Model the fold of this input.
Amino acid sequence: METKNIISKLRTQSGLSQEALAEKVFVTRQAVSRWENGETVPNTETLKLLSKLFDVSINTLLGSPRELYCECCGMPLKDSDISREKDGAFNESYCSWCYSDGDFTMDFWKQYAKLGGKEKFEEFKKQLIYEFNTLLHIEGLPKVEDLYVLAGSFINTEYRLPNGEKVKFLDDNATYLGNQLECEFGGNRCFGIAANMDFLLVSTYEENGENPELVIYKKR
Done:
């Protein structure tokens, strides 16, 4: 959908006339009319006001021309997942699990500080990558090239044990380093990997996390 249609739809859904919308974002009614006719597009500052008013991202207002991903964890972003600043404005660079209310989540920065800053954090990531690639020897698991910060609530899958019991190994409120990798043998299953200072975890699952199976949970 084009910007002109999106603004018109959001204005109508909000029960606003063109004049009422113009007053809320400090422009003339003629400016709103030109947006909805496709003659012009709101400038950056006005897009920010429209984003806050309609509670949608600027990317959505512009017709979603970009695929948004969290710059911290790599998670694909929908409006419902995008982080917020303290004033409620969207921050389209991060997901709400990595960044919230104008700051990065506490758990992530506690780990960051505990490791001794950015340089030590990168060294820790490289060590985990080395361990995934050299210690586990899992058939079909491709070489791990990178790890991203992932929210526990996003990856905390429930697995069925051989005795039939269902368990989760992660904490919804914590953050982990992990990635998703396609199986080298093809098919409809892929690998999910996660780790922190205490363990390495590898699982496999189908599209959208369906039918998960735990491959290995190894203490470090």
User: Anything to note?
Assistant: The chain has three domains: 1-63, 67-104, 107-219. The chain has a mean pLDDT of 90. Residues 107-219 form one domain.
